[in-house]
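User: Predict the complex.
Assistant: Input components as received:
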Amino acid sequence: AQKVTQAQTEISVVEKEDVTLDCVYETRDTTYYLFWYKQPPSGELVFLIRRNSFDEQNEISGRYSWNFQKSTSSFNFTITASQVVDSAVYFCALRVLSNFGNEKLTFGTGTRLTIIP
Amino acid sequence: SAVISQKPSRDICQRGTSLTIQCQVDSQVTMMFWYRQQPGQSLTLIATANQGSEATYESGFVIDKFPISRPNLTFSTLTVSNMSPEDSSIYLCSAGRQGFGYTFGSGTRLTVV
């Protein structure tokens, strides 16, 4: 079964603190892709990163960094020196093949991040 | 990445009526999807919109309730039929090329009264 678990439902931190959002996934596929999306209050989904299962290098983009560990099936997301504009719901997703052979994204339940000024 | 225009952005509809949501992509894409996001919940895939053929529906979703069209590689519509208050959700279109990242439209906030 394909599954994405984001155990943290809500997190609040004070501005400028670092925060890590956890994502644990389950899949039997040997080749798969993991994604992070941001959904600000306006509602649109903003693509942040895609990582394939063969690339375990950590990635850094500005204040954002991602830690992919196949051994623990985790793909965690860290925001350094958080800002109020980071307040949003963050979704982790796993690309899987559906029963019909098409690919689709399976989403976690999301983590609502609130940055307190 | 593809840029998606989705409309309407929001609507308030009467119970029993239908609403058609449009999704226009600025480039040809292989994959187009429709998702539903109920209030405070995650995204659930409704169906994959197939170009020139019937959509592929996920478990729990049927064509009579959510008819989908995709006449070409850049355009798709989702209709929410015979609406009830339980259909109040955000509906999102997503598109991209198979094996690559997917972008999402800004969503349609539907309220059924």
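DSSP finds no helices and twelve strands in chain A.
Let me know if you want any component modeled separately.
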